[in-house]
Every structure is written in C-alpha cells, then in structure tokens.
Amino acid sequence: MLDRQAQFRLAADAVTAALVEVPEVEAVALIGSVARPLWREVPRFQPFRYWRIPVWHECKDVDLAVWLDRLDRLQTVNRARSLALQQLFQEKQIGVAHHQLEIFILQGEANAYRGRLCPFSQCPKGKRECLVPGCGRDPFLQQHAGFTLWPDALAPDRIMRLYDRRRGILRRAAETPAAGQHDHGTTG
Q1: Which of 12, 47, 54, 147 has the fewest C-beta atoms under 10 angstroms from its C-beta?
Q2: From residue 163, how far is each of 14, 49, 159 by CA, in Å?
C-alpha cells in the first residue's frame, strides 16, 4: 500500500508538471488519501476482518484539485493528463490509468466546485455517465449525480499544495515522506 501511494504521488507530480503548461491552470493540489500519511485500518475483506488485523489504507486513485480561470479548454487539460501518465509509464514503468487520476475542477478563491474532468476522449461520449443532468454543459466537465465536494476536502491540513501560478511549483508529492518511513510501531 505504501508503494502504491508512492507511485500515485509520482503520477500527481507528472500530471502537475503537464498542467503547469496549460495557461488556464491557476493552482493544483493533491487531495484525498494520497495527500495524507496512510493510516492502519481493519479492511472489509477476510481474513483480516475476522481476525481484526489492521493494514495500511488502500489508495485506489489519485485526486487532484485543479483551479482554472476558464472552462472552455478542458479537452486540453484532459490531453495533458493522458500524455503525462503515458510518459510516466514509458519512463518509469509506473502504470496509472487516466481514469485513476481524477481531476476536480474548481474556480475562484471561494473554491467553487464545478465538476470533474471527464475521462472520455470525446464529449458527450454516449455513455451512461453522460446522462447526468448538467454533464457536458461545459465540454469535458463531468457531473456525478448526488455528488457534493465535502467542505473539509480542501482544508489546509488535508491537502498538499503542488503548484500556484504566482509562485510556481510549491512542492513535489513524491518527496513527501510516507507514513511507513517513520512508523515502526506495532499493528495491534
């Protein structure tokens, strides 16, 4: 789990580096479990659940919050994500699919959530996901039925700011120590 988190952090850095080249991108932050030190938890699957054996939390995808000053070139952002992940695989053999790196689109200092970057190559794609009301109103801006970005998802202690247009690259996610590098305690 620690290795997967490290790979996901490399993917976040690769995509951030690509997004820096997109003029509409104002800022990028890593959010979700990849941004925080992993914790131990009893998983839902057996035999760990039965014996109450805690393991590291499983990061299933990478979540990036991306602030844009306009929404009319989301296909460029989508292309930057895909190309960065392809290059990461070619150079380091780290495989993260484009749909495993979700980009949450925000605008303004009020962090107004607009939707997620669509993972499809065209908009609309004619998939079930495209039928959600408002999906594709702005091309490549995907909506999810009933989804609300939790207010604390962007709390300063829960995110890792990676880039700001005014200050440039702020940090590299891959250079942040993982929980396991300092945790030598017991699992019980």
Answers
A1: 47
A2: 12, 39, 12
Contact 114, 138 (CB under 8 A): yes
Give the closest residue to 173 by CA, choosing from 30, 1, 20, 68.
30
Contact 116, 110 (CB under 8 A): no
Q: 28-65: per-residue pLDDT in tens?
A: 999 987 777 764 555 666 675 565 555 554 657 888 99
The answer to whether 73 and 34 are in contact (CB under 8 A) is no
Closest CA to 104 of 115, 119, 88, 95: 115
Overall average pLDDT of the 60-86 stretch = 94
pLDDT at residue 1, rounded to an integer? 58
Please name the residues in contact with 163: beta carbons below 8 A apart, sequence gap of 6 or more: 16, 19, 20, 25, 27, 28, 169, 170
Q: Encoding tokens for residue 31? A: 């959010």
Does the pLDDT at position 184 exceed 50?
A: no
